[in-house]
Amino acid sequence: MSETARKAAGLAAPSGDANRWKALVFIALAQLMVVLDATIVNIALPAAQEDLGISDGNKQWVITAYALAFGGLLLFGGRIADLWGRKRTFVLGLVGFAAASALGGAATTGPLMFGARALQGVFGALLAPAALSLLAVMFTDARERAKAFGIYGAIAGGGGAVGLILGGFLTEYLNWRWTFFVNIPFAVVAAAGAYFVIREPEGGRNRNPLDIPGVLLSTLGLVALVYGFTRAESDGWSDTLTVSMFVASVVLLLAFVLVEAKVKAPLLPLRVVTDRNRGGIYLSLGLAIIGMFGLFLFLTYYLQIVKGYSPVKTGFAFLPMVVGMITGSTQIGARLMTRLPARLLMGPGFLVAGVGMLLLTQLEMDSSYPALLLPAMLLLGLGMGTAFMPAMSLATQGVQPRDAGVASAMVNTSQQVGGAIGTALLNTIASSATTSYVKDHIAGATGKPQQQLVGLQGMVHGYTAAIWVAVGILALASLIAFTFVNAGRPNPTAVMSGEGAEDEVPVPVVAH
């Protein structure tokens, strides 16, 4: 609606800084860097392992060191953003991430690489919630918010696949070290732009003293949970340390909830997660990420090992999913978010993604890319893009401005924990099914070529077994979205209140 039309109708103009759309460019750039980094490093890992002399037993720490720091410190990072200011935390996260990336690219030993990855996780935990909460407090008009979160959701969803392409190019044609160095220009441009362009609204700080017991319990509990799932993938679910990590995680996180219910200024106010809509979003998003890992994890191996694709060709093979996510976020989710309740976008979105995943259960060694993989990835991208955008927007809507950082951190936490669970759970299922298949069929294989063929057939069999589980998980995510998320479409004229730390953000008007 134009400014003139708004005045004629007696409506308030969208509030917020005039530079908010420019600010979105730099926030989106930072988000792209974080998402790219997750997949770029996976592509570069084999080359880095050989160059630095990292043993097979220790190579997991290139991924695990980042996951533990990032997943464990997200709630703390969100609270720091609320306390220090989101712009300051955002810029600090970018500068630190760039420095850690430079250290990783220059690493000459395995331990130095592990330390650099942990530092990336620390600064990523500051950066990610600050970015999302900046969007939450800067875009308050419902229609503008839909467009902004559509762009952000497309980047959050499709950036990983773009990382596969970029990682393939850098590893194949330059050197694995460039998969770290490439973060530096992203971070410098985003930090400089944010410093000069972003004007954070006044009055949204949470200046209460930091809840130290909450910080310690949540960090240790989340680290134990993420490490438990990571270790389960490599050492099995019955491993003593794996079981100990899960037990410790349950005890620590229960203690965290008890502490948060009693302290005056909690790290995570329970009102943030006990709200029916936000609770449903955190749960359904976490489940959807578990399901999505079935795609990235198995299709990357399938395309490279079974089909013989190069890293670059593998990256390009994921492009249809990127296109689907961008279309789902910006053309479907953003356009319909102000017209439909969120559950009517999230529920069907997860179902469409589930149908795409269902197609992949038909995967065989000689499956056609155009006939099977292409439509499956398009459906996955469309479904996830449509569901992610309203989920990310609603997850930070209806919270007090002073809680925006920690509410944003919960979105990232659900995704990070979902990723750790997805990697461990689905990989364990696939490995078990592969082992069983090979055991049943290897006796009839005579000669090395036939034995190798049985091995590849077993690998594909394992992937499809795990993908069936991912289909069920996406169906459950859809059911939770339909059941728990009951907010109606937002009032197009609703504007976030930013007058003081105590002001409530108007809750979307429920359309009956």
Automatic annotation (TrEMBL):
Keyword flag Transport: yes
Domain Major facilitator superfamily (MFS) profile: 23-489
Biological source species: Streptomyces eurythermus
Localisation per UniProt entry: Cell membrane
Lineage: Bacteria, Bacillati, Actinomycetota, Actinomycetes, Kitasatosporales
Pfam hit, one: MFS_1
Regions that span the bilayer: 21-48, 60-78, 90-112, 118-137, 149-170, 176-198, 210-229, 241-259, 280-303, 315-332, 344-363, 369-392, 465-485
Entry protein name: MFS transporter
Membrane topology summary: Multi-pass membrane protein
Major localization listed first in the record, in broad terms: membrane
Record PROSITE patterns: MFS (PS50850), SUGAR_TRANSPORT_1 (PS00216)
Annotated keywords: Antibiotic resistance, Cell membrane, Membrane, Transmembrane, Transmembrane helix, Transport
Protein origin, superkingdom: Bacteria
